[in-house]
Amino acid sequence: MTKIDLKENERIDDLQREGLKIIQDTNGFCFGMDAVLLSNYCDIKKNSTVVDLGTGTGIIPLLVWAKYKVKKIYGIEIQKEVAEMAKRSVKMNDLEKDIEIINMDLKEAPERLGVNKIDVVTTNPPYMLKDSGIINPEDKKAISRHEIKCTIDDIIRISSRLLKHNGRLFMVHRPHRIVDIFCSLRKYKIEPKSIRFVHPRADSKPNMVLIKGIKAAKPELKFNKPLYVYNDNNTYTDEIFDIYGMEKGENHESR
After folding, report:
1. 3.30.365.10, 3.40.710.10, 3.40.50.720, 3.40.50.150: CATH of 32-244
2. Which of 36, 78, 194, 200 could covalently link to 212 via disulfide, CB atoms 3.0 to 4.6 Å apart?
3. Helix 59-68 and helix 33-41, axial crossing angle in degrees, nearest 10
4. What is the pLDDT of residues 33-55, one digit of tens each?
């Protein structure tokens, strides 16, 4: 572990995997459960090359490396300050040979990384439409949450250009955007192959959806069993404890 100097309002969090840690900005946009669930939902072969579009703090590359020990991961992030923080997290964990954070617009990724070269694309993109509410277009949280710098269509179009034939796309999003997502997937020749809804509780509507698509695959969509986060007594379900690698009864702050 390389020692890293922290900036004002930064902290180091333990990811409880392979001794990995991550730098977070307490005033900025910290990672949440969606990134953890997405990395767990992925199905990635060991020698794969992976691109994470809109990597933010670099949480998904770190979790994917810990779980799958892939060949190489590129994290693409348009916000310079956020990308710089992700780079310091990679350096702190001595993973600079395995994970490369690139500060650029994801629309430039095929030119930089090549067309039809990537095995897997992961993405936890902005969930909200650009015109949903009053937003500051330069605010870090707004850019992470609203489609200011990219849209669902951008994400899927670029994923299709990056992916090899039969390459895989893994995405986490909100259920109310699922029609937009599926329309774009078909438009860019990525076939939705499996889907899993995430519910806060068994009696509540889903608030997240996990999607797997395969480029140039035959049509057939499988529905995975629902994932429930909390029991009736507000404790995590057994599956959430397993995903986080926690002992039952251990508290975990969802960031």
Report:
1. 3.40.50.150
2. 194
3. 30
4. 999 999 999 999 989 999 999 99
Tokens linked to 84 = 């710089």
114 residue type, one letter: G
Residues 170, 37 contacting (CB under 8 angstroms): no
Give the pair of three-digit tokens for residue 35: 């990134």
- The full length of the chain comes to 255
CB-hemisphere CA count at 13 Å for 255? 22
- Which H/E stretch holds residue 109? helix 109-113
Residue 126 corresponds to which amino acid? Answer: P
Digit-coded pLDDT (tens) for 62-118: 999 999 989 999 999 999 999 999 999 999 999 999 999 999 999 999 999 999 999
Residue written as token pair 């990679």: 90
| The two structure tokens encoding residue 34 | 């969606």
